[in-house]
Amino acid sequence: MIRFQWLWVFLLLPMPLLVHYLMPPETGDRDAALRAPFMADFTDIAGSRPVRFNSTWSVVFAAMAWLLLVTAAARPQWIGDPIELPASGRDLMLAVDLSG
Question: What pLDDT score was predicted for residue 49?
């Protein structure tokens, strides 16, 4: 049975939604972090536009990542003694030399 040591960490699950709705939207008026005046040359050579990620998949990926991070932060722990399985059989290692 798995038990979470810090259940209060699950209160952080709605944090991305709170940040999304409470933070002001980005205006885009800031300067770019990387100025590349020759970026159009790269797109002409490649023959296509830069690839944009599908927003639905990026939201699903981000939500799954946040859920897994919060779950890991809650410190899941096994309760009870581990059950030892009987080990029967033999260990075998095979080494093959393929060099000439």
Answer: 59
Q: Looking at residue 76, what is its pLDDT?
A: 92
Query: CA angle, corner 35, sides to 29 and 41, nearest 5?
Result: 120
In this prediction, residues 49-75 reach a mean pLDDT of: 84
Q: Which residues contact 74 (CB under 8 A, 6 or more apart)?
A: 4, 5, 6, 7, 9, 10
- Phi first, then psi: what are they for 77, rounded to 5°? -140, 145
Contact status, residue 80 vs residue 1, Cβ threshold 8 Å:
yes
Over residues 57-76, mean pLDDT = 93
| 91 SS3 class | coil
Greatest Cα pair distance, the chain, in angstroms, is: 68
Q: What is the pTM of this model?
A: 0.57
- Taking alpha carbons only, the member of 19, 22, 27, 31 closest to residue 66 is 19
